[in-house]
Structures are given as structure tokens and as C-alpha cells.
Amino acid sequence: MPPKTSLSRTAVADRALLIGDSEGLDAITIRRLATELGVTPMALYWHFKNKDELLLGLVDHVLSEVRADRETADPWPVQLRAMIEALVRAMRAHPCLPDLLHAVDKKDVESFTRATNDSLALLEQAGFSLEEGYWVASYLLHSAIGLVQAQPGCPMFVPPDQVGDWLRTQRIQLQSLSAERYPQMVRLADTYQSLPDLDRYYDFGIALLMGAVEKMAAGRPVAS
To answer: What pTM does this model have?
Structure first.
């Protein structure tokens, strides 16, 4: 019988994500989780048999909201963009998610398989063949990961009280370049007067990704 504890699979996943987001995937262990949750390791094995199964569970948990069922009557670009936005939100909330996606066999994750199936159905509506749709879906996934990993601004490890110094250092480094050889890079220094508007950055990036897909879909016969 399961141990007499109120510990849920979701609670275990949430604590593991907290550790992974702050310290990286290597810091997530069954023993560490058990200690922080105040239970024995055996209590966790009722939910996850080992770390590999735990990592799969984390991906499944985080991607549960990446789905194309907001408004099924919406055109395919609206639904597809909503899926990308949900994926980006998940990665922004959980910095360890890109590493998680690389660490597990995504075909073993139900929510990932469902999201892929949803995106293939939408891309078929756009006129892409099944194979082309898979290429597009892969492009969108890896581009979304790249968008998050390339997020501009101050690195997470810089303390809040040192952000001003970090911005100043970036300006000085760019301003020290040869204005004759690298005029655009020198001008870029002005953008380090303050931290970037990240919401605008992500809106711009997602529009860039979707623009490429919509451009290729234009003129293709739309599936009925």
C-alpha cells in the first residue's frame, strides 16, 4: 500500500522543478527531494521509480498547458501561436526546461506527444504535408528554446544590486570598440542604458517564428 502521506505527484514535481530551476538538473536527486519534502525516499518511489522517470514526469507536468484547445474555431495561426506562447511561458517560468527537453526521450512524454500531434494537425490545416509539418514543428520547438536561451539582459546570477554595474560594463565594452570598424556595435552601447523589455522581446521573437511559417504556408491549398 502507498505510504500514509499527503504527498502528491504534483508536489514532488513542483519541488524538483524548484531545485532544477535554481541549481540545475544534476542537483535533483531522490534523496535530496525526500529530505526537502520531509519524507523517506521510499515515499517518492510510489510516484517515480527513479530519476529518469522523475525527469519524464517533470516535462509532462510543465508541458501540460501547451495545447491547441483554447478556441478550436480560431484559424490555425492563432492556435499555433498560442501553443508557442505557452511553451515560451513555461520555459521562462522554469529555466531548467530546455535542459530537461534535451535530457529525456520526448516520445515517452504524453503531454509532449499530444502537443506535437496538435501542432501537426494545425500545420496540416495550413497546407503542409505530414512530413513538412513535422519539420516545421521541430523548427518551432528548437527556435523557441533558442529564443529563451538567448534572452537579452542581465544574467540571472547577477544580484539585483549589481545590475547597474553590469549595464555600465556592457556599455563600456561596446564603446571601447573602433567606431570606424564597428559603428553599429558602438551604437548598440546605448541600448544598455536600462534592462530590455522582455515581453516585447518575446512578442517580437514569436512573431518572427510565426511569420516564417505563415509565409511558407501562403499559397498552399488549405485543408478542409
So the answer is: 0.86
Task: For residue 156, count CB atoms less than 10 angstroms from its CB and return exposed for 0-12, middle for 13-18, buried for 19 or more.
Answer: exposed
Homologous superfamily of the 9-49 domain (CATH): Homeodomain-like (1.10.10.60)
Domain boundaries of the chain, sorted by first residue: 9-49, 65-152+197-217, 160-193
pLDDT single digits (tens) 114-169: 999 999 999 999 999 999 999 999 999 999 999 999 999 998 888 999 999 999 99
Q: Which amino acid is at 119?
A: S
Scanning the chain, the segments in alpha helix (DSSP H) are 9-23, 30-37, 41-45, 51-62, 76-93, 97-103, 110-125, 130-149, 163-175, 183-188, 198-217
CB 33 within 8 A of CB 15: yes
